[in-house]
Amino acid sequence: MFQVDGGRITDPDALVAADLARAVEGTDGLVVQFSNPDACKVATLQALNEACRLAGGRLTVRFYQHDDEGFDARCLNHLPDVANLASSD
């Protein structure tokens, strides 16, 4: 499950696409963010991608603070349906 805090979901352990798509309904949007490479599990990214397909542009995916290991852009291969993508230090 996931917890929304201030319009953000940070480092979710697991996501269910339909639940996330429902959570974004009636909002201006949500940000699902990953603060470290270990949080970027394939199953989570695949569910997030499906949620992005269902929710359209109301979901933003953000990667930040991947300083030590660097950001591995290969994880984006699992997110072809993301409309809003952000990255920061």
Whole-number average pLDDT?
91
H/I helix tally: 2
Task: Write down the overall geometry.
Answer: globular
Looking at how many chains there are and whether they match, the oligomeric state comes to single chain
Tally of individual domains: 1
Q: Could you list the spans in which at least 5 consecutive residues all have pLDDT below 50?
A: none
The main pleated sheet reads as: 4 strands, parallel
**Amount of beta strand:** 15-25%
Helix-strand pattern, N to C? EHEHEE
Q: How many beta-strand segments?
A: 4
The CA-CA distance between the termini, in Å, is: 27 Å
Could you tell me the radius of gyration in angstroms? 12 Å
Structural class by secondary-structure content: alpha/beta
Main sheet strand line-up? 1-2-3-4
Descriptive account of the structure:
Strand 2 (30-34), helix 2 and strand 3 form a beta-alpha-beta unit. The chain has helices at 17-24, 42-55, and strands at 8-10, 30-34, 59-64, 84-88. Helices cover 25% and strands 21% of the residues. The chain has a 4-stranded parallel sheet with strand order 1-2-3-4, with helices on one face. It is α/β, with parallel strands linked by helices and 89 residues long.
Strands, helices and their partners?
Blueprint: E1 8-10, H1 17-24, E2 30-34, H2 42-55, E3 59-64, E4 84-88
Parallel strand pairs: 1-2, 2-3, 3-4
Helix pairs in contact: 1-2
